[in-house]
Amino acid sequence: MQIVTTHKNSDFDGLASVVAVTLLHPGTLAVLPKALNPNVKAFLSVHKDVFDTHIAADIDLDAVRRLFVVDVAQWKRLEGLAALEEREDLAIRIWDHHPGQGDIETPEICQETIGACITLLVRELQANGVALTPIQATLFLTGLYEDTGRLTFPSTTAEDARAAAYLLENAADLTIVGRVLRPAYREKQKKILHAMLESAQRVKVSGYSIGIAHIEIRGHVDSLALVVRLIREVLNVDAAVGFFYNPERDQCMVIGRSGLEELNIGSVMRHLGGGGHPGAGSALMKGVKPAAIEEMVLGLIEGNQQASVRVSDLMSFPVVSVTSQTPMEDVAQLLRKKGCTGLPVIDDGELKGVISRRDFKRVRKKKQLEAPVKAFMTTTVLTITPDKSPAQAVGLMVKHDVGRLPVVAEGKVIGIVTRSDAMLYFYDLLPE
Fold it and tell me: What is the dihedral of CA 180, 48, 22, 86, to 10 degrees?
């Protein structure tokens, strides 16, 4: 017997990937966890005659000789299959698009950092010439769009876009995709959202704004991820983390949503025993109070940022500068020679201002070129510290319409970062 399964609380990417494996390996049984995303559960209730699925309790695990796993690579995130973990005669094949290693050991593994797991399977379906029905193509596109935010999440790759195009060529229905992915925001979720917003806090971690919200819940409440996404939007923060504590079970569901690639929420949740992507993740913790989990999350976010690229990695140094007494004519020559658009003005190690080509528009007469820089320089200088991220640097430059930021540490200018430096980084054009 061959079976294919995916993680608990499966989303459309997991379901789509499971179905794709059954097409690649006919006769493979699709085994889904009982806990499914509410939208997935609703979809399957309508399409139960189209997609034949089972739960682990229906399967004779002793008869299983081959196991396919999709969208996950951790035993603990599979439901009802613990008996297979110690089986030495079990052949295992994995497709997973999450970075980092799981604990399912097998030489047959395709684990690539890509927007959606179904993209990896679409690649194989194409390579093997497997024909798709419109319903299958629609399901696969739903999974792809869900995990890539309709191709807008930072984790989206060119291959995801090509896979989407292929599915559309195979008659995937965008109207159905849009209807299926529309989140169910009901009165219960609205009450939870309002209650969490009343006590929500904004905190700063490594220069980023994080929204933190807690609430006690009893019984089952679905679509909590939608609540956290709305909290992030309402608070206008870089990331939001919701802590949903159930005192009856002494467990806390932690859900995070991030709008910045460098704020990798999925990585944070993996440290808590959960999983996710750079923009989204969750974890379920038992026997730990929300306040302690919050401290862990903020610590992990701070550590995660410290490991990422900083302004100090992009800045130019030593800094070419002029003094406040330098004639404007000399500044013009220096700007042409260096091919830059502006320079910091420094006297005895102290930053006095910035002079840029834009300031030369105020030079009306030739004699004014003999005047010192201090007569034309901008004295209100925006600076940045070396520990900030490229995204923060660009945000400052865009907000204040400047093309460069002196990098200051302990009161001294140690470098300069320009808009061009940041753009080269974002478009992966920095020299190796």
Answer: 100
Q: Report the alpha-carbon distance of residue 167 to residue 118 in Å, rounded.
A: 11
Q: Is the pTM of this model over 0.70?
A: no
Q: What fold characterizes domain 187-306?
A: Diaminopimelate Epimerase; Chain A, domain 1 (3.10.310)
Q: What is the pLDDT of residue 226?
A: 82
| 178-208 pLDDT tens trace | 888 876 566 788 889 899 999 899 999 888 8
Residue of 180 and 213 predicted with greater confidence: 213
The domain spans of the chain are 2-181, 187-306, 312-426
Q: Binning pLDDT at 50, 70 and 90, where does residue 10 land?
A: very high
In terms of pLDDT, which residue wins out, 209 or 279? 209
Other beta carbons within 10 angstroms of residue 2's beta carbon come to 17
Q: What share of the chain is helix, strand, coil (3-state, %, to 5)?
A: 40, 25, 35
Strands (DSSP E) along 158-250, which ranges? 201-205, 208-216, 239-246
How far apart, in Å, are the Cα atoms of 363 and each of 70, 353, 377? 65, 17, 11
Instruction: Please give the CATH topology (third level) of the domain spanning 2-181.
Output: inorganic pyrophosphatase (n-terminal core) (3.90.1640)
Residue 394 is predicted with a pLDDT of 77
| DSSP class of 10 | B
Helices H, strands E: what count in the chain? 14, 16
Task: Name the CATH topology of 312-426.
Answer: CBS-domain (3.10.580)
Instruction: Report d(CA 13, CA 180) in Å as an integer.
Output: 13
